User: Which sequence fits this backbone?
């Protein structure tokens, strides 16, 4: 890492420490089982995995949030706030031009009023980036998740949609299937129509047992017998996903949607309170963009407010800063104990590059 990036990381850390954030560090090698449990095998495509004869599978740190949350849930008291700076490592198989090792400087708040904490993290990071030609983006994954939980359908369907909130194409495919917009494939119809699917099957292949295959077939049959999602509910989900306007206009649209989908009411109220808190911190919310799908392709722990800052002239560059709320992550790593938590990270090298006009 170059000296300018290190100096920028130090500048950012000082800003976060001035808010009362405690500097913390985490090991570069993290237990792979924790990340695999959170993200499934998909994380292997994005992280570097190694084997330790005593500790088992380990991963080079793909980000700071998970280890900071683990440490806080094990040892920390609420409320608390932390800052950190160091290298993270990401595989870039689809874009070899992107760096596989880069600096992150972050700011995390645990506890406190969610709207106020969201606003503080966003405003603090926006202030740290003041003077740079960056375009802010915001969203709220919690609104979409609340809408899914309120659907009049089976818990199995809602669970599948919630698992794929961060995979927009898979989410869309499931929504189309559950609403009968996409017909059941012919091979599945044949399978489900058979009284004994194993009668004409060949020899067993792979690692799944017959009992596992039978359970999967039973799940498919239960799914086929479930009534399709209503066109009204599907259309409301589409409206939430497709929102792309200034925050006040989005808030107005969501209040209208909440009339027909009351399940999102609390999340919409949360958005309103956050906008008030942002405005009180000097953020021009009248021009602040909001996208219904923003944040759905990031690491899979954000479950509420999400934000990013992107170069206004180089859309091909990664965001200079990203962040969001991750209350559900504290529940998973805290063995059921939930702590409101929000944070964000800045990439010092990109800040230096943008400031010097090389972006």
Assistant:
């Amino acid at each position: 890492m170059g000296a300018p990036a290190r100096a920028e990381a130090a500048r950012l850390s000082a800003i976060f420490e001035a808010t009362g954030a405690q500097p913390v560090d985490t090991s570069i090698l993290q237990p792979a089982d924790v990340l695999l449990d959170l993200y499934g095998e998909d994380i292997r495509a994005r992280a570097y995995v190694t084997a330790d004869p005593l500790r088992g599978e380990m991963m080079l740190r793909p980000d700071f949030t998970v280890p900071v949350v683990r440490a806080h849930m094990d040892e920390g008291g609420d409320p608390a706030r932390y800052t950190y700076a160091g290298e993270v490592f990401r595989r870039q198989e689809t874009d070899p031009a992107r760096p596989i090792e880069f600096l992150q400087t972050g700011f995390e708040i645990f506890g406190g009023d969610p709207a106020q904490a969201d606003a503080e993290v966003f405003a603090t990071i926006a202030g740290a980036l003041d003077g740079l030609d960056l375009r802010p983006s915001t969203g709220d994954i919690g609104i979409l998740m609340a809408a899914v939980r309120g659907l009049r359908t089976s818990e199995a369907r809602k669970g599948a949609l919630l698992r794929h909130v961060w995979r927009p194409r898979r989410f869309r495919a499931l929504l189309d299937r559950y609403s009968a917009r996409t017909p059941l494939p012919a091979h599945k119809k044949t399978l489900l129509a058979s009284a004994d699917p194993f009668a004409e099957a060949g020899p067993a292949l792979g690692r799944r047992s017959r009992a596992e295959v039978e359970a999967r077939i039973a799940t498919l049959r239960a799914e086929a017998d479930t009534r399709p999602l209503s066109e009204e509910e599907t259309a409301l989900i589409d409206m939430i996903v497709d929102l792309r306007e200034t925050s006040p206009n989005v808030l107005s649209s969501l209040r209208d949607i909440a009339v027909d989908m009351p399940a999102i009411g609390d999340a919409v109220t949360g958005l309103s309170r956050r906008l008030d808190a942002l405005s009180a911190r000097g953020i021009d919310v009248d021009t602040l963009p909001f996208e219904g799908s923003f944040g759905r392709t990031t690491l899979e722990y954000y479950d509420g407010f999400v934000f990013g800052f992107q170069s206004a002239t180089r859309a091909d560059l990664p965001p200079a800063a990203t962040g969001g709320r991750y209350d559900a992550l504290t529940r998973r790593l805290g063995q059921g104990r939930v702590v409101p938590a929000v944070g964000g990270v800045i990439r010092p090298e990109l800040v230096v590059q943008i400031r010097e006009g090389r972006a």
